[in-house]
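User: what does the whole thing look like in 3D?
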Amino acid sequence: MLILTRRPGERVVIGDDILITVMGVSGHTVRLGIAAPEGVPIYREEIWLAVKEENRAAAAADPESLPSRPPTAPAADPGEGS
Amino acid sequence: MPVIFESVRFGTVEIADEEVIEFPDGLVGLGGLRYTLLDRNPGTGFLWLHCVDDPALALPVVSPHQFFADFRLELAEQDLARIGLEDLAAARVLVTVRATPNPLDITVNLRAPLVIHARRGFQVINTVEGAPLQAPLFVLAETAGTQSAASADAA
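Assistant: Here's the predicted 3D structure for the full assembly of 237 residues, as structure tokens:
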């Protein structure tokens, strides 16, 4: 991993079109400004990981694992008489 | 020109060319650039978002509006720019389903919906506060509180 030291206001350039600016540092918090082409998705890592996990779990499904109708309570459902 | 592809789950599938949906960025962690929507569990509300180029890659999806009356989708500026759409109302919104043997444990991801418009699709991050990664899809009528109960029975 490349490790760089930057001060507030300084930047890192990735390729020709991604620019990361250290906006400020406060205690244990660093604020970053990211300028990237519109097509580049940018995520906080924890969200990216969580969504990846949900996608993978969803992709593990088989057609039989989906119910053919919503589950109903054992007792008669007043709103759904037929 | 029909598009024909193999599916681990459904065998040989044939769709019309215009049913192909391009996902320029793929799905998070899964990739896949071309998908289509298959109605293989008719009447249940579930569709399959199936990758055209990978026989094994498919996810069940549902319309969040069908199951969650108060579902809202808001995007960060950067996501809006990425999908190139000013008005989300014009798009079709779907959410991925985490299937489980017990239907009551099935959850959907309201945090990262799929936005589809003009044969292009994107997985986006819903910035509405508290949009859950795992929202229970079904709630038994007698225990249903603020959350809307399912109504997928319509065929």
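In plain terms: The helical segments of chain B are 64-67, 77-83. Residues 2-138 of chain B form a domain with the BH3618-like fold (CATH 2.30.290.10).
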